[in-house]
Amino acid sequence: MTATAEPEIGKARLRKEDARLITGQTRWTDNLQLTGMLHMAVLRSPVAHARITNIDVSRATAMPGVAVVLTGEDFAAEQGSLPCAWPITEDMKSPPAPAMAVGQVNFAGEAVALVIADSAYHAADALEAIDVDYDELPVVLDMEEALRDNDLVHPDLGTNKCATWIFDSAEAGSGTNVEDEIASAEVVIERTFKQQRLIPAFMEPRSVVVDTTAGMFTVWSATQIPHILRWMLSAVTGISEHKLRVIAPDVGGGFGGKLQVTPEELLCLLVARRMGRPVKWTESRTESMLSAHHGRDQIQKITLSARRDGTVTGLKVELLADMGAYLRLVTPGVPILGAFMFNSIYKFAAYRFVCTNVFTNKVPTDAYRGAGRPEATFAIERMMDELAVELGMEPMKIRQMNWIRHEEFPFNTVAGLTYDSGNYEAATARAMELFGYEEMREEQARRRADGSVVQLGIGISTYTEMCGLAPSRVLGALRYAAGGWETASIRMLPTGKVEVITGTSPHGQGHETVWSQIVADKLGVPFEDVEVLHGDTATSHKGMDSYGSRSLAVGGTALVYAADKVLAKARTLAAHMMECDEADVEFASGSFAVRGTSTVRSLGDVVLAAHVAHDLPEGMEPGMDADATFDPENFSFPHGTHLCATEVDTETGMVRISRYVAVDDVGTVMNPLIVDGQVHGGLAQGIAQALYEEATHDEMGTLTTATFADYLVPCAADLPAFLTDRTTTPATSNPLGAKGVGEAGTIASTPAVVNSVLDALRHLGVRDIEMPMSPERVWTALQGRPDPGTDDVAAGGLGSIDAQGGQS
Amino acid sequence: MIPAEFKYLFPSSVDEAVRMLAEEGEDAKVIAGGQSLVPVLRMRLAAPTALIDIAGLTELTGVRDDGDSLLIGAMTTHYEVQRDHLVQDHALLLRLVTDTIADPQIRHRGTFGGSLCHADPAGDLLAPVLALDAVMIIAGPAGRREVPASEFFVDYFTTALAPDEILLDVRVPKYTGWGAHYEKLNRVAQAWSIVAVAAAVQVRDGSISAARVGLTNVGSGPLRATEVEAALVGQPATAEAISDAALRASSGDGYKDNLARVLTGRALTAAVAG
């Protein structure tokens, strides 16, 4: 018998992949050494906008170990344009996006030339010997200035405006007209928020190896999306897709930052094709920050209308979203993912969303943990607090009176979505209890009365989000180029062991553990008997990869259906073996039994019988493998209530989080340990946006936060002990009941922190503080002085780094 | 992150190290714990032709009792300073400062002398060394010389050390029985101080008989808050006296000026209490 004593699903198993990841007993892309391998180093533009008038590679070419030095001109005929898979409107402006600049650079950090050498050392040395002459052009950095079209990032486009995308509830039939609501409202609040630019800062830098052996192009890449990468590389280079194999080996984090088809992946492939030899490129941290895509960077103008009793009526969102210099894989669509989330859990009668995408001379933006939804959640949760202040109401009360009640699910929202399930009351009640909400308010009142140096703030975020990307027909309707299904295969081996193949591509999430738990439960095999294969297009032949908190809700469901197919076939064969009617066969704990008898066949017996195929029912194929592909009918909608207490030192401006409670409803939980890990990491990244992280540029467009000395990623020592708990309303859109948890913590936490800091200081006259809320910004606001901006924010650090030194 | 090519030398005595420095010329650089130099090399912000690794000079490691003062070897790691009983008993401020430097891994590699020679104005050790009237003992081609801390720190990343000289020891007078505190404001744990204040106070019969106050990352080098020190001497060790004196840490109205005043008050309060 191979029965499992207790259900695997719901068990807090340690992750089976961790031992090898933590001890280094695995092979990351950069560890690969191939015979005859060349090394690629990338020379990057030190200026943000310039014509390239000359590139002299003669000195570099003569350097020791250098095989060749290549410029954009050398690849002009074959590099094509990097793909953008999400043309959000028919008339969207989309400039050519060369992997290596030809004639003009449009952001500091853009690839200008390549050194191909026999070692990474020789390649780095020769980079310094390339002489490039730049004829500098006016630099466009500010979005509002960019829209005046005085100076153009791409003169050929005639404008810096990329596209305008509109949703209007009156036009869509999902609500009333927002201008009518605003005109007739008793209260109208208008605020502008800045979503600063962030850097995904995954732990493993990007790395690519391309091999050309045996007429195949094999591409190893530290990517989240091996399947999409294969498709896109084929489309851009003309290399037949069946001659391309992409392998994402163990990958050290992504957070959306590796949801990309990068210039360097394409360049490595082109170099390998030209040289007929393997090529490797691995970036440095600074190079990563200068050239890998950034996230966020929006200006949000929000207008909210309400009645005096606190009932919200209308919401108007006018966004400017910074694309950077080029449109990468899903750049223009990221703010659009937020379009459906600004109304959040509240019952607005009318909603209008207008997003204007803008080109600037900066690194392209693209997906970063939450992608559009953190921005939306921030704006609405800030606005609910602003409304509470305006009306003199308790901020939780105003949320309670406006949110969707649990008995109202499924609920059709003003943004046109159908929320399938949720219980905001339950999550909020639990969070307030864990937090000690009333006691905390009393402590706050005491400190205000005392005039304490350290004031206490309480911040609320009652969020929801849409994830589990995505129903293919919805993606099609949004003009996205691909589908959102996911696939899984199960191979039953003759010894009873199980190989699972998934189209998802884990890069730190723990899929191997959870997929094993699901299969162990479904098939009644031991957890240890399941091996999960992923990330290699030769074994996992199709898939849509991992992002958007989709892997479990979509990919896990495909796995459930594949297991169902295995069991259905096994049941037929078991009935044949036990010479009974299939309707009389019962399956439990890994064995088939004839109802009411002691006749039993284990799944292993049946699998072996299928494998040897000596005696199968008429028409049955040998073997016991199954494939399934699942396309969800809806997104899933995790939600929760986060409460954050901050202590704000009014003399120094320093903010310390003293208590953080996160009660999340992520549907049915497969592994609570992994869910907690996802929440903790997500909270860290959301808190980081509120307090620490910001990508800044000088007036020339040079990134001034190109090292971890300047770009402040918090560590465990900077964060509080999180109090986490869960409420559960299963998702109805998949049989697991799973909602997705990868992004929830990041989406929820940023406004909780910012609301908390403002709550601590409002009685001292502070109305708003830009993110990140550095001590200097907080103190300056307390003095009643204007925001110091980013250039003067005091900190130690290395300051701006010469972009040209990227690879060194 | 690949540094430019350099020659690597490993002297076995101070004299040999000094000779190597002279031979290799101005573009040679001494490497101690490497916690500041290696990142700079890897980012190619500096490209010395030769690195002279003084890790083999064991005579530069450790803390020695020298009568009225301590001699702290330049190659003593932060970790060793943190755990040294002489430092604990006679230079408590240095231990408290060292506790806040970076993280345990860096404290195991980074050295006391290396930090001082790097002379990053945001570095934690400069201000207390200045405030404690320490003296640098330096070896060069002409023999040994001593330079007081007040003359050693010249500017951003610049000291009085000549290119062919090596810091051997730091002589720190004994502050036995003094209260001390380091008040540091940094945004995240691994970040440099925005401003920090190092304070040591001697209290006798309820009044302040002597005080030493140093400011980190307020100027192009460490600053000694002499006006604060002078205002404290002879005053009762009260909150009022301390807050009056702390106002003299800076006269400006900028953020760092404010921090200098606020953190000086806090550092002195804790030093008096401790």
From TrEMBL, chain A:
<dbReference type="GO" id="GO:0005506">
    <property type="term" value="F:iron ion binding"/>
</dbReference>
<dbReference type="InterPro" id="IPR016208">
    <property type="entry name" value="Ald_Oxase/xanthine_DH-like"/>
</dbReference>
<feature type="region of interest" description="Disordered">
    <location>
        <begin position="782"/>
        <end position="808"/>
    </location>
</feature>
<dbReference type="InterPro" id="IPR046867">
    <property type="entry name" value="AldOxase/xan_DH_MoCoBD2"/>
</dbReference>
<feature type="domain" description="Aldehyde oxidase/xanthine dehydrogenase a/b hammerhead">
    <location>
        <begin position="23"/>
        <end position="138"/>
    </location>
</feature>
<dbReference type="Pfam" id="PF02738">
    <property type="entry name" value="MoCoBD_1"/>
</dbReference>
<protein>
    <submittedName>
        <fullName>Carbon-monoxide dehydrogenase large subunit</fullName>
    </submittedName>
</protein>
<dbReference type="GO" id="GO:0016491">
    <property type="term" value="F:oxidoreductase activity"/>
</dbReference>
<dbReference type="Pfam" id="PF01315">
    <property type="entry name" value="Ald_Xan_dh_C"/>
</dbReference>
<dbReference type="InterPro" id="IPR008274">
    <property type="entry name" value="AldOxase/xan_DH_MoCoBD1"/>
</dbReference>
<dbReference type="InterPro" id="IPR036856">
    <property type="entry name" value="Ald_Oxase/Xan_DH_a/b_sf"/>
</dbReference>
<keyword id="KW-0500">Molybdenum</keyword>
<dbReference type="Pfam" id="PF20256">
    <property type="entry name" value="MoCoBD_2"/>
</dbReference>
<dbReference type="InterPro" id="IPR000674">
    <property type="entry name" value="Ald_Oxase/Xan_DH_a/b"/>
</dbReference>
<keyword id="KW-0560">Oxidoreductase</keyword>
<dbReference type="InterPro" id="IPR037165">
    <property type="entry name" value="AldOxase/xan_DH_Mopterin-bd_sf"/>
</dbReference>
UniProtKB/TrEMBL annotation, chain B:
<dbReference type="GO" id="GO:0071949">
    <property type="term" value="F:FAD binding"/>
</dbReference>
<dbReference type="InterPro" id="IPR036318">
    <property type="entry name" value="FAD-bd_PCMH-like_sf"/>
</dbReference>
<keyword id="KW-0274">FAD</keyword>
<dbReference type="InterPro" id="IPR036683">
    <property type="entry name" value="CO_DH_flav_C_dom_sf"/>
</dbReference>
<feature type="domain" description="FAD-binding PCMH-type">
    <location>
        <begin position="1"/>
        <end position="177"/>
    </location>
</feature>
<keyword id="KW-0560">Oxidoreductase</keyword>
<dbReference type="InterPro" id="IPR002346">
    <property type="entry name" value="Mopterin_DH_FAD-bd"/>
</dbReference>
<dbReference type="InterPro" id="IPR005107">
    <property type="entry name" value="CO_DH_flav_C"/>
</dbReference>
<dbReference type="InterPro" id="IPR051312">
    <property type="entry name" value="Diverse_Substr_Oxidored"/>
</dbReference>
<protein>
    <submittedName>
        <fullName>Carbon-monoxide dehydrogenase medium subunit</fullName>
    </submittedName>
</protein>
<dbReference type="InterPro" id="IPR016167">
    <property type="entry name" value="FAD-bd_PCMH_sub1"/>
</dbReference>
<dbReference type="Pfam" id="PF03450">
    <property type="entry name" value="CO_deh_flav_C"/>
</dbReference>
<dbReference type="GO" id="GO:0016491">
    <property type="term" value="F:oxidoreductase activity"/>
</dbReference>
<dbReference type="InterPro" id="IPR016166">
    <property type="entry name" value="FAD-bd_PCMH"/>
</dbReference>
<dbReference type="InterPro" id="IPR016169">
    <property type="entry name" value="FAD-bd_PCMH_sub2"/>
</dbReference>
<keyword id="KW-0285">Flavoprotein</keyword>
<dbReference type="Pfam" id="PF00941">
    <property type="entry name" value="FAD_binding_5"/>
</dbReference>
